[in-house]
Here is the input.
Amino acid sequence: DELISQIAAGEVVERPASVVRELVDNALDAGATQVTVRLLAGGVRLITVEDDGAGIPRDELPVALRRHATSKIADLHDLETVVTMGFRGEALAAIASVSEASIHSRPAGQDSAYRLDARSGELRPTARNQGTTVEIKELFFSTPARRKFLKSDNTELAHCVEAVRRHALARPEVGFAIWHEGKLVEQWRAVVGAAPEEALARRLADVLGEDFVAQSVAVQRSSAGIGVIGRAGVPDAARSRADHQYCYVNGRFVRDKVVSHAARSAYEDVLHGQKQPIYALYITIDPARIDVNVHPTKIEVRFRDSREVHQAVRHAIEDALAVPRA
Ligand code: ADP
Ligand code: MG
Here is the structure.
């Protein structure tokens, strides 16, 4: 089983940022309102992700590390309409198989906290507030070939920050902090008590910069049961700025050719083919109209009707940019 987990790890865990993505995913699934990521050496020596979510009961700590252990699929129908981010029950087992992992947790409504050491299986009491901390030390220590492929600490750190950023842009109501070598690298405070659009605008300003918001227009359009909201950079901004292209489908970050092509098509006339457009788009669609289980890293979706999605995204951006439609 260890070997199978290590093979699974090969697919799921490419670098420290893959671990960060999965652990933050779990924290959000657990209903965290604050997620703190601490890293040493770009995450290679240490990654800890701390949350204030529902926690894991003592007896379930060993289960969480087992392959195909997930608390998130009740039945097969759930697979079709899954709304939580993770659903495969493999991430923790895979990560633990290529690192020194431990989980510390105190479930909601309980006075005591426990700590499980993955390698030794030792379970002992510890002290902490409600929530969970997963600690991953010495990633790939047992697979030096993979460790060799890692880049400099700063590059790995940048990938880790990007992994958190992708979550943060989807969840303005959750606060995030990233520490590296004891220094605060990024902090995005929870936006509370604001209407959804306002919360999103504030989080976008916080994460992508005031400039991004100032030099972009609001996207908001719904057609054929496909909702598209967010912001799209005005052409001048797109010409001068970095390649911010964030797309979410039902709250899940995705990279999708249909969406990026639709965006490029919308910009074609106004950009004169000079540069990539910049945008943060949030698409909502009936989960029955997409497949999300196409890749172990869960970054891809397959739209059952990509033509409708293409048109919805294209028209949403064209409307925002006030591009006349032929
Ligand atoms: P999945 O997220 O696909 O269910 P994982 O391997 O990522 O699988 O996690 C296994 C299980 O461990 C989860 O289903 C959940 O029950 C538990 N778990 C992991 N991380 C946390 C956390 N931060 N808070 C609460 N429960 C967690
Ligand atoms: Mg998970």
Remarks:
- The chain has a mean pLDDT of 87.
- The two ends are 58 Å apart (CA to CA).
- The chain has two domains: 2-188, 196-321.
- Residues 153-168 form the longest helix (16 residues).
